[in-house]
Amino acid sequence: GDSADVDTRSDVYALGVLGFELVTGELPHVLVGREPFAVVRAIRDEAPRRAGQLLPGARGAVEIILGKALEKERERRYPSAGAMAEDIRRYLEDRSILARAPTLRYRLGKFARRNPALSGAIAVALVSLVGGAVLVANFAFSEQRARRVAEQEALKSSMTLNFFVSVLSKANPAFSRGQDLSVREALESASADMAGALGSQPAVESRVRQTMGASFAALGRFAEAEREMRRAVAVAEEAPGKVPALDRISALRNLAEVLLTQGRLLEARQWIERARAQRADLPPGNDDVLLRIDHTSAMIGHQLGDAALDRTATASLLERAELHAGMDHRLLAFVRELHASQIERQDPEPSLALRRQALDDLRQRFGDLSPDAISTADNLGSALVRLGRFDEALALREGLHSKAVQVLGAGHPVSLSTGMNLAHAWQGLGDNERAVALLSELLPLAETLPEGLDVRYRVMQGLSTALFAQGRLAEALVHARAATTGFIRLYGEQHADSVLAMTSLASLLAQSDGHREAGPWFEQAVEATTRNLGAEHPQTLQTLSEYAAFLRDADRLEESLQTFAGLLQTLERLDGPSAPQTLVTLYQYGGALQQAGRHAEALPLSERLLRDASGSLGPGSPFTLLAPNRHARSLIGTGRLDEAETLLRASWTALDRPDIAPQFRGYVAESFLQLAQARGDVSEASRWRERAIELGALARE
Predict the structure, then answer these.
(1) Over 560-600, what HEC string results?
(2) Averaged pLDDT for residues 20-44
(3) For position 566, what pLDDT does the model report?
């Protein structure tokens, strides 16, 4: 909706979601496995479940109160948190509540407005049929559930509702000394009161803390979310006989996922492994819970590059997900994507086939334009880029971005994400001008998003990279600083996105002669990624490659050469000789060898780079564009001057484009200068020196 069209009833809706989960233990919409932004579409288009469907004791007044808070039409909600709290108090005091259930006439009217083609007799028939089915299912479910929980349900529901009243009161100006507290502030205040309010019921307290942790995470408050999840685990483990195994294990998994969101993978692994170690405590019939625990564990292992998580392990997980597909089709799609990622290097075609299967299933079940389908299609585009199939990726992403804007609007986070990835595809094909134009349009929209959504910082980071490719270094630095600050504030310094942002900022600073400021950023990034991901994780190796290039340019040449030599061996062993990061390191290492005068050693490296860069990195990559220049310098250093001149002239012409940074031609001019000096041609050397200075590759002495 319109972010400007917000009043206190928006907070009432958020509190209604919180209350629903506090009472039932589940969210009002089925959101498990959906990508984060699908929540917006679900809230807009899907009717929330009734609390009584999930918990028989919530039927009647409690269900009506929660239903009123969750009304899609704001004018039908409670006007304030205080009004909602008053109705709950009336219920707890056995008085009549003020809210009333929606009438059948109103419900049918809403259905007809949403589905004009199914109005009239057809709509009535469908509603009657569904109503009968729900009645039978609810009766069977309630009979089974009631026998199990009847003795404890009343006490827990009463305690939960009383505590929820306190949360509502914190958000009500009448009870908060005239201050209009936000949901976050109300949660913070209620958290401090929870131990006293619920301390005698650890099962209730653990569940409530998990709910509050999820609410903080949804607000982008990950430190507070982690705090509540840790407290939920502590409460559950301190009273093992009073907290069901399902709640205890769920608390462990939820804590692991909060840490995973922050990029603290090694810590997340510790907690998810504790959850896995307690799987035997779960009662029968929890196969879906076991599958989600193992999926979270596998996701962490995949991001860590865990050798133990081989294709056999993810294939077994996929087989289990397919057996239980009826539980959660979205989870099945995500497991397919996980297995596809795991086999991508060795079996690219089967990997792409799995991603397409996941996409087709989501489209069939939830619609071609559902956010989950859009997100999965976007991931398919990223895989095509990694595999060097840029034309396919571009076609997919152009259609995808158009659909996202059509369905969700230009300012929706998913639309911003698809737009950013479309710009990346254009960059891969060398169209930096279109990339900068699109990202410049996206940035003002991204800056209106809440700070808890990282897509705003991703757009800044993407624009910084595209501007640098055009030689607009000062502008690129502005956006790189903003992105780095945002990621660190959101996720902390150890998160993968924070480390990438720090590395990018440091590289730009080094390009702008800011070596003194760049050094600490590089060192911080290397230390964080090595500690959190391990010495051989792809991101650690990428960060180390950038740091080695910095050492080269900071006149610490011997350190640079030693770092590059070990790094290249590791990359060739892990990824292969033509993998993207291997080729980037080849480019940088070759420059260090040339700077040290070791041209014979640089020659085979630059030759391989020239041969493989376009297919692996894409024709528009800066490393692809500058590969001929790098090889020409190796040729000059080994005395093959005529070959070098032919290569340089072709490169000079190819780089004469308005969307390519003038500095790139400046590097070629510097190579022409070296060629003229090698031939002893003073006049030609003087001419090329002036061109290199004009294009920003050399400073005037």
Answers:
(1) HHHHHHHHHHHHHHHCCCCCHHHHHHHHHHHHHHHHCCCHH
(2) 59
(3) 94
Q: Based on the number of CB atoms within 10 Å of its own CB, is 64 exposed (0-12), middle (13-18) or buried (19 or more)? A: buried
Nearby residues of 633 by Cβ (< 8 Å), 6 or more positions away: 594, 599, 602, 606, 644, 671, 674
pTM > 0.70:
no
CB 252 within 8 A of CB 233: yes
Q: How far apart are CA 548 and CA 590, in angstroms?
A: 12
User: Structure tokens of 500?
Assistant: 């990438």
* Distance (Å, whole) CA 192 – CA 185: 11
Cβ within 8 Å of residue 116, ≥6 positions away: none
Q: Do 212 and 191 contact (CB within 8 A), yes or no? A: yes
Cα separation values, 346 from 319, 350, 576, Å: 20, 9, 11
Task: State the DSSP H helix or E strand holding residue 527, giving kind and residue range, or none if neither.
Answer: helix 515-533
55 near 153, Cβ under 8 Å?
Answer: yes
What's the start-to-end Cα distance of the chain, in Å? 58
Q: What angle do CA 266, 461, 511 make, to 5 degrees?
A: 100
Q: Which amino acid is at 12?
A: V
| CA 378 to centroid of chain Cα atoms | 12
Closest CA to 635 of 647, 622, 651: 647
Which structure tokens are listed for 352? Answer: 């792409």
Q: Model confidence over 188-228: pLDDT tens digits?
A: 666 666 666 566 678 878 877 887 787 777 666 778 889 98
Per-residue pLDDT averaged across 49-73, rounded? 79
Are the beta carbons of 97 and 87 closer than 8 angstroms?
yes
Determine the Cα–Cα distance for residues 326 and 333; give it in Å rounded to an integer. 12
Tell me the CA distances in angstroms from 322 to 291, 310, 315, one per residue in order. 11, 19, 11
Tokens coding 248: 């205890």
- Cβ contact 625:660 at 8 Å: yes
Residue 470 gets which letter from DSSP?
Answer: T
Torsion angle defined by CA atoms of residues 531, 533, 538 and 540, in that order, rounded to the nearest 10 degrees: -10
Q: Where are the beta strands (DSSP E) in 450-549?
A: none
Joined together, the tokens standing for residue 670 give: 């510097």
Note whether 427 and 393 are within 8 A (CB): no
Is residue 32's pLDDT more than 80?
A: no
How far does CA 671 lie from the centroid of its chain? 42
- E strand intervals along 41-115: none
Query: CA-CA distance, 574 to 325, in Å (whole number)?
Result: 34
Tell me the one-letter amino acid at 76. Answer: R
List the one residue out of 289, 342, 348, 301 whose CA is nearest residue 318.
Answer: 342
**Which residues, other chains included, contact 363 with Cβ-Cβ below 8 Å and sequence gap of 6+?**
370, 373
Whether 448 and 415 have beta carbons less than 8 Å apart is answered as no
The encoded tokens of residue 615 equal: 């297919």
Q: Which of 18, 13, 35 is nearest to 359 (CA)?
A: 35
Residues 358/26, Cβ–Cβ less than 8 Å: no
Q: In residues, how long is the chain?
A: 701
Dump strand ranges (E) for 387-539.
none
The owner of tokens 């595209």 is 466
615, amino acid identity: G
What pLDDT, in 10s, does the model give residues 332-368?
A: 888 899 899 888 878 889 999 999 999 998 888 877 7
- Closest of 583, 645, 591, 665 to residue 618, by C-alpha: 583
If pLDDT is split at 50, 70 and 90, which confidence band does 626 have? very high
Please tell me the distance from the alpha carbon of residue 180 to that of residue 646, in angstroms, as a whole number: 72
Report the C-alpha gap between 507 and 191 in whole angstroms: 43
C-alpha 449/C-alpha 634 separation (Å) is 49
Answer yes or no: are the C-beta atoms of 692 and 669 closer than 8 Å.
yes
Query: 333, 322 in Cβ contact below 8 A?
Result: no
Burial group, residue 59, by CB count within 10 angstroms (0-12, 13-18, 19+): middle
Cα 124 to Cα 109: distance, rounded to the nearest angstrom: 10
